[in-house]
C-alpha cells in the first residue's frame, strides 16, 4: 500500500513506496516520509536533552568529576524513588 505525502515545495500529493528519497512528480523536490522525519526529530531531541543533563558523564572528564557525577546520578535516582513512593502512597491512601 502506497502512502501519500504532500510536497512541501509545490503542495502536490505524491505516493511514496518504500524508498525514502523520492522526488515530487510535479516539481522534482525530494520528498521524505513524515514518519521518518518525526523519528529523526525525536532522536535529535533525545540527544540534545541528554547533553543538557548536568550529570552526563563524558570521556574527557577526570576521575574526580566522574565520581561526582556518578554520585549525583545515584542520589537523584534515590530521591526521585522516595518522592515517587510518597506520591503513590498519597494517591492510594484515602484521606
Describe it for me?
Keywords: Membrane, Transmembrane, Transmembrane helix. The chain crosses the membrane at residues 74-93. 52% of the residues lie in helices and 13% in strands. It has 95 residues and is an alpha+beta fold. The chain folds into two domains: 1-52, no CATH class; 54-95. The strands form two sheets. It has a two-stranded antiparallel sheet. The protein is elongated and about 60 Å long. The mean pLDDT is 86.
Helix/strand layout:
Layout: E1 3-6, E2 13-16, E3 22-23, E4 30-31, H1 34-52, H2 63-92
Antiparallel strand pairs: 1-2, 3-4
Key terms:
2 domains; two-stranded antiparallel sheet; 2 helices; single chain; elongated; alpha+beta; 52% helix; two-stranded antiparallel ribbon; 95 residues
